[in-house]
Amino acid sequence: METETRIDFNLDGCGIYGVLSQTMIHATLDRGLQEIASFDVTSEAKMDAVLKVINSDAIKKVYTHSPTDEREKVQWQYKLFDMGDTVILVSVSSQYNWDVKGASKNRKALDDIMAAIKKVLPIMTSEDPNIVPVNFWAIDVQGRVTCRTRRIAVPSWGDVLPNYSTKAREGLESLMNLWPPLEDNGRLMLWHGVPGTGKSYGIRSLAQAWQKWCEVNYIVDPEKFFGSADYMLQVILQSADDGSATEASGLVGASDEEDEERAYTGHPWSLLIMEDSDEFLTADAKTRSGQSLSRLLNLTSGFIGQGLNTLVLITTNEPLESIHKALQREGRCMAN
Fold it and tell me: Are residues 205 and 322 in the same domain?
């Protein structure tokens, strides 16, 4: 007896962007494509590079969703390649963020196609040590987590250190010189000070100093990040599982021979940056922000953060005495 799979499209839930994903799901279920694979990567490659490695003779249909404006096509594009027993969905958003999913009846055929696509999507690099890729994370009103990667100009520590007081300079200097393996003395950094004291410049210098071993993630909406368990887990687990990040030594170019010789090849690290996050740092944070404070503590020194090379940097305009004592505890806060 023949069976038929039916999927109803809910455009309110998935938006027009989700139509190709739903089409792929329909084909996967209807045709019994049991082998699944996926990967995501930050790359400067173009969609044309992907088209060249997919066998055009095997393609039965190609579904495309792209902007009508040619200038916007470099920002985002979606293509679904239907080869009968194999379907491949390739999407690029915010120009650099690639997501590739595949389903097939044949494991080897699927692995070969995915490997060929991955080969033409090299990890984003920069020859300029003062340009660093930064991932910007946010969650929309429908609960979808989005990530957009931008190249950010970052000053070296030597360029900005004269702007800091002796005490602040000494504390920042020790952070700038960190290199894995890191001592287990906490995963939280608290930077506090009134506006104009150089917190943002310090963050950019830290990104420049750590670029060879640490991926930089900026949380646009920190109050929602710790307020939503799904949002938080998606960011920290995706950063930890990102296969491209394992080649951390290739994230950016080196500025001299000494830097070229110093390459980090260990498990990738991830820095989560949250600016002006006053509401879950103060002494009454538990009352005002619910589970946000608890999740922050668990991520930096609790069960959630175990096995993750995740560092959290939070800035605040609040004075030190207003910050919750649990956050300042020795062994939890690596820099204050």
Answer: yes
Paired tokens of 60: 């039965």
Do 233 and 136 reside in the same domain of the chain?
yes
Give the domain-ending residue among 96, 119, 142: 119
Q: Percent of the chain scored above 70 by pLDDT?
A: 79
Please check whether residues 56 and 183 belong to one and the same domain.
no
Percent of the chain whose predicted confidence (pLDDT) is above 90: 45
Q: For residue 192, what are the CA distances in angstroms to 135, 136, 316?
A: 23, 22, 5
At 192 the pLDDT is 83
Strand order in the sheet with 77-82: 35-42, 97-104, 86-93, 77-82, 61-65
The pair of three-digit structure tokens given for residue 171, joined into one six-digit string: 């504390």
Distance CA 97, CA 79 (A): 14
Both 109 and 177 in a single domain?
Answer: no
Domain residues for 240? 131-335
CA dist 193 and 199 (Å) reads 8
Give the SS3 label for residue 229.
helix
In sequence order, which ranges of 198-326 are alpha helices (DSSP H)? Answer: 199-209, 222-225, 229-241, 257-261, 285-289, 292-301
pLDDT of 280: 63
240 and 112 within one domain:
no
Beta strands in the chain (DSSP E): 35-42, 61-65, 77-82, 86-93, 97-104, 131-139, 145-153, 188-192, 214-219, 269-274, 310-316, 333-335
- Are the C-beta atoms of residues 130 and 208 closer than 8 Å to each other? yes
